[in-house]
Each structure stands twice: as structure tokens, then as C-alpha cells.
Amino acid sequence: MSQDRAATISRRHVLQAAGTLALGAHLPGPWVERAAAQAGQGPLRLGFQVHRTGIGAVYGRWYERTTTAAVKLINEKGGIGGRPVEIVAEDDGTDPKRGAEVVEKLAVQHKVDFIFGTLFSHVVIASAPRAGELKIPYLVVSEGYHVASGRLNRYVFQPGITDVRAQVTAVAPWILKNLGKKVTLIFPDYAFGHDHRDFFSRVATAQGGTVRALIPIPPTETSFTKYFPRVPADTEVLYHVMVGPGVLTFVKELGEHFGSRRPQIFGFIDSLEGVDLASAGLEFLEGTYFWEAFPRYAAANIPQHARFYRERVGVNDSGASVTDPRDVSTFSHMFGCWETLFVIKRAVEQSGYKKPGAADYKAFIETLEGFQSFPEGTEHPQGPKKFVGRLHQAFGQQVVSRVEKRRLNAVHRTAIEDSMYPPEADYTKQPL
After folding, report:
1. Are residues 126 and 170 in the same domain?
2. What b/e sequence results for 204-238 when a residue is b if at least 16 CB atoms lie within 10 Å of its CB, and e otherwise?
3. Count of alpha carbons within 13 Å of 6, Cβ hemisphere only?
4. Of 40, 64, 207, 303, which is most buried with the most CB atoms under 10 A?
């Protein structure tokens, strides 16, 4: 069996991680297992809401692979609170309605302890209210501003990845200072893209820049040539972010349209996640810039914990699968699954959580809200984080990388403080 296939988490079966066997434990029959779980003695069951199909499928596949690796490591080290971890996965189809249904299925039918996962903001926004109604903690691995905005509920957290507002707040000043002040934005026409539109525009105005045009694109679009003529001729910087199966087409058509007479280009790596920079038609990207959360290409001096993370997930120094170099990872996003699982571990163990229920969930939530930082290391390989409990949001470092000889090389790393903004919400005041 290939490593990729072995990394797949079955939708119909519970994944019993290898760490359980390493401990010499043989899990009992289902009825005994349920009774033990109710007493807080059996496996800790984590519901995994994953994009297996739909426009987020490439992310979902690597989210699963990263989750499998993290759970295996956790179980090798004794599980969470001495309990082995099991993952119950359900495909949300990258669809909002289905996302809410998955949350209910995981909570009501599978009776999981917690729910985590999912990237696309429109799915999170649709799913979060159901988690709040069911009163089950829901930890998302998304970038949207939906959590920190205060528009969701106290049961929803985003502790493993920085949101769009923070990303843009950190890198926009660098763009305006180094690349140009007349900027045109191309972005997907839903919540995630709107966050880029709104927060970049805000920073640009404050720093004397000008947004020359805003060009929204439907997230299901597969051809983009009709949009590029809308870019004003005096644009100094073309800022783009695109997500979904059409990203390779997007960047190829972008190059075909502008050629060598292009403005400076700054993209978010979302436009190239899962895409090999050596692909034909991407030669024009040489010398352009991208935001990355976690640099895809390993530098010679990367820390040991970052090297360890690559080895456990199974990616090479180019950020592609060690079993198939054509299979490029979603490296700047999938680490959020790894880090979120270790946040859950920390909160469970510190809160004394035993089983689903109002009292234990209250302790878990209040413990997580009390966290202030996550140190860089094996559990947080992307880098150190600050956590703002009232926002339920983590803040980390951002990276600006330049395309040089078909690879991304980091040229600037922001401080955590560069990404932080004044809180506009306080979930801790909401009742549980």
C-alpha cells in the first residue's frame, strides 16, 4: 500500500492510530468502548470535517494527510490525557449546507468529543451556527476573518492558523513600500476574497496608497482572460489571490495576458497551493512575490522541528510528496491541522476534560480562552503564536517570498505584532 493511500482517513471507519498498538492496547468491542467513553476512559473521538470533494478537495486531501500524521505522533506519545485519539471523518463537499449537516452528523450520530477541520470560509460560516446550537466545540483551520469578527459563537475557535485580516495587516505595508502604491486587487467573490478586498484597501488608504480597481471573480470560474483587461494601465502592483481547481489556469492566463510588460505582482500562495512552480506556462512568475505562512521550499538552515514536521507528514524539501514529487502540498495551510490538534491536546489535559457535556465543555472552552501563546517547536512548527482568547484567534508570523529559479525563497518575515489588530469582539462575554 502506498504512503498516500495509507494516510487516507476512512469516512466509514474510525481510524485507530498506530500509537494504540505501540502501547500494546487492544481496543474492546463497540458497546464496551461506548461505555468507557461515557466514563471518560475510552478513546478520545475527534470529528474531522474535511473537504474531500468540491473546490477545496486539494486542500482536504493534504489536511487529511497532515491530520493522520499528527494523530499518529500524539498516540505514539501516549494520546491525550492518556487516551488514544480516534478520527471520525466526514466529507462536507466544500458546500455550506452540507457543512452544517456534517457538524450535526459528527455530534449527534458519531457522538464525537470535538469537531475540527475545514478551510473554506463560506463552509465555516454556515457550519458554525449548528455547532453553537449543539454546544460542541468547533475548531476550524480556516483563514477567514469570520471567527475574529465576532459574527460566530463561543464554541468556535481558530487557534492553528492566522486569519486574513492579520495576514494582510502584516504584509500590506511591505507591498506599498517596496513594490508600489497603485494597486489593483483580483480576488474570489466570497467571504475570503472580500476580507482581502476590505483589509488591504483599509491599509493602503491609511499608508497613502491607492486601490486602482477591485476585480471579483466567482469561485467556480475556470477561465479568467475576460477579467485581466479590467486592470488599469497605471497599476503598479497587481495583488491576486485565487482558490480552487482553476488556480493553475489563472496564473498561466495572467502571464499570457501581461507578458513582460506586467506590473509588479504580489500573490497570496493560495493562487499556487498544490501547483508545481516548474509547470509549463509559469515562467513569467520569475521575480514575482508571494505571501506564505509556512515556506514551501525548505531553506538549508530550517529548524529541526520544521524538518521533523516535513518528515512526519511526508513532504520533501520542495513541499511535494516524498512518494510522488508531482503531488505538491498545500504547505501554507495544512500545518494548521497539526497545530490545532496539539492545541486540543493541551486544552483537554489542562482542563481535565473527560466526556461531552456542559460542565466539561465549559472547562475546555474557558481553558482555551485563557491561553496566551504557543511556543515554536514540534507542536507548532510554523512558528510561535500569540493567542487572543476574547477573539478565539491565533496570530503568527507571515513570510514574503520571491520566485527565483522556479522556487520560492523567503525575503522578509514579519513580527507577530505586525499582524495584530485591535479586538472588535469578545466571545468570553457570551454565555455557555
Report:
1. no
2. beeeebbbbebbebebebeebeebbeebeeebbbb
3. 10
4. 64
- pLDDT: is 224 or 37 the higher one? 224
Grouping H, G, I as helix, E, B as strand and the rest as coil, residue 192 is helix
Residue pLDDT, tens place only, 83-103: 999 999 999 999 999 999 999
Q: How far is CA 19 from the centre of its chain?
A: 25
| 274, 414: one domain | yes
Helix axes 57-76, 304-313, angle to 10 degrees: 110
The pLDDT value recorded for residue 259 is 83
Do 138 and 77 reside in the same domain of the chain? yes
- Whether residue 348 sits in one domain with residue 307: no
Are 383 and 415 contained in the same domain? Answer: no
- Residue 34 in any domain: the answer is yes
| pLDDT (tens digit per residue) in 25-83 | 333 343 344 444 455 679 999 999 999 999 999 999 999 999 999 999 999 999 999 99
- Residue 429 domain-assigned (yes or no): no
The answer to whether residue 428 is domain-embedded is no
Model pLDDT, residue 38: 52
Q: Residue 43 phi/psi, 5° resolution?
A: -60, 150
Are 103 and 138 a contacting pair, CB within 8 Å? yes
With H, G, I as helix, E, B as strand and everything else as coil, classify residue 6: helix
Number of domains composing the chain: 2
- Report the first-to-last Cα separation within the chain, whole angstroms: 46
Distance CA 105, CA 333 (A): 25
The parent domain of residue 25 ranges over 3-162+332-396
- For residue 23, pLDDT over 80 is answered with no
- Residue 180, judged by CB atoms within 10 A of its CB (0-12, 13-18, 19+), counts as middle
d(CA 216, CA 207): 23
User: 374 versus 6: which is more confidently predicted?
Assistant: 374
Whether residues 211 and 296 share a domain: the answer is yes
